[in-house]
Design goal:
The complex is a heterodimer of chains A (224) and B (212). By secondary structure, chain A is of the alpha/beta class. Chain B has 212 residues and is an alpha/beta fold. Chain B has one domain: 3-Layer(aba) Sandwich (Glutaconate Coenzyme A-transferase). Chain B is 16% helix and 26% strand. Chain B is built from 4 helices and 13 strands. The longest helix of chain B has 10 residues. The chains are: A alpha/beta (224), B alpha/beta (212).
């Protein structure tokens, strides 16, 4: 019997090794898998490379992982925010490496990894600092920049519901990076508000098919 | 001379958006445009984080942490609106599916180059977000900005000195002094604030302007 449901958060994040690349879903706090991040902090893996749109807000979630000194590099599009003080401090003191990527390139590089694409030409960023040193090409009279996929060992994702095959549906704009990160990671770990029986999710409306998901954990007391 | 207020600028942008258009409003000044869109026009607002048919801010107490805009402020979804993942959201931009995006700017060049993501200051933490994708992706890029910096320099320039967001991407600039089309290196003035003449505007901008 295929059963991807894990009994708890500790079991769900077991085995993450030092130096791993971890994608973390969410746009700001919407869709951020806060409980899974706390479980990674407790699990202890360090020297991590993190892929997220942002670089942590406030003092919880991703910001707490950064504050714990576990992250050597972050790949993101928008680190600087009014409440990104944890990242700001680490960056200014040279304690974290930043790879800044335009948001659409970040999304497409993640999608490309999951879809088996070797690299792709995109018009985004052409002629800017963020394309310096990158291969370019003119295709049908337009300038493009070569971008490579971003693969990950793990993805931490927040979804609304899952079944034991790992099929997922999300809630509102908390979906954001979840579906593409699930595709791009070797092991996708998903926290959900509710685990439902097989067949309960409408097959026409499943957003992430279970083939992209390895581990699911239900968060107790989640009310949203 | 009587400068256009921020709301007047937003009103001008809103009135130039056709019914049924798919539009992305950037963070900052462009968000004001939403207040001036007649709901009967059914302009569909896109938000980079996976929303089409974005509605106004919710009533106090009805905020939902899972329903925010690009600026991470709470919003609502119109009846008929849709959610989608990030790769689809940016395919809407890059793939040329958005009719218009409205962005703020530090500088716009005569050739339509846009600088709006980074001051280039050595101690600044760079953050780009979706600005570069929007700049090159939408069918038309409108910029909303004050025409001059606080120290009186024109933000419409021969060549941007701030780091670029996109090359040759701006179609039209809406400012407190004039609305100007950027057309293959030519700057065509569509409208000016009351009490300013074309020669005066040229002196402020420091570039050759023509009446549209």
């Amino acid at each position: 019997m295929v059963d991807k449901i894990y009994p708890g958060l500790d079991a769900a994040v077991a085995g993450i090794s030092d130096g791993a690349t971890i994608m973390i879903g969410g746009f700001g706090n919407a869709g951020m898998p806060r409980e899974l991040i706390d479980a990674v902090i407790a699990q202890g893996a360090t020297d991590l490379t993190i892929v997220n749109n942002n670089a942590g807000n406030g003092d919880t979630g991703l910001a707490a992982l950064l504050a714990a000194g576990r992250v050597k590099k972050i790949i993101c599009s928008f680190p600087r925010q009014t409440d990104s003080h944890v990242f700001d401090g680490l960056y200014r003191s040279g304690k974290i490496e930043l790879e800044l990527t335009p948001q659409g390139n970040l999304a497409e590089r993640i999608r490309a990894a999951g879809a088996g694409i070797g690299a792709f030409f995109t018009p985004t960023g052409y002629g800017t600092q963020l394309a310096e040193g990158k291969e370019t090409r003119v295709i049908n009279g337009r300038h493009y920049v070569l971008e490579y996929p971003i693969h990950a060992d793990y993805a931490l994702i927040k979804a609304e519901k899952a079944d034991r095959w790992g099929n997922l549906v999300y809630r509102k704009a908390a979906r954001n990076f979840g579906p593409i990160m699930a595709m791009a990671a070797t092991c996708s770990i998903v926290q959900v508000s509710k685990v439902v029986d097989l067949g309960e999710l409408d097959a026409e409306a499943i957003v992430t098919p279970g083939i992209f998901v390895q581990r699911v954990v239900q968060i107790a007391g989640e009310c949203s | 001379m009587k400068r256009f207020s921020k709301d007047e600028i937003a009103q001008k942008v809103a009135s130039d958006i056709a019914p049924g258009a798919y539009v992305n409003l950037g963070i900052g000044l462009p968000t004001l445009v939403a207040n001036h869109l007649d709901p009967s026009k059914e302009v569909l607002l896109h938000s980079e984080n996976g929303i089409l048919g974005m509605g106004p801010a919710p009533r106090p107490g009805e905020e939902d942490d899972d329903l925010i805009n690009a600026g991470k402020q709470p919003v609502t979804l119109l009846t008929g609106g849709a959610y989608f993942h990030h790769a689809d959201s940016f395919a809407m931009m890059r793939g040329g599916h958005l009719d218009i995006c409205v962005l703020g700017a530090f500088q716009v060049s005569r050739h339509g180059d846009l600088a709006n993501w980074h001051t280039g200051a050595p101690d600044a933490i760079p953050a780009v977000g979706g600005a570069m994708d929007l700049a090159i992706g939408a069918k038309r890029v409108f910029v909303m900005m004050e025409l001059q910096t606080k120290t009186g320099e024109s933000k419409l320039v021969e060549r941007c000195t701030y780091p670029l967001t996109g090359v040759g991407c701006v179609s039209r600039v809406y400012t407190d002094l004039a609305v100007i089309d950027v057309d293959a290196g030519a700057l065509r003035v569509r409208e000016m604030a009351e009490g300013i003449s074309l020669p005066e505007l040229e002196r402020i901008v420091g570039l050759s302007l023509t009446a549209a």
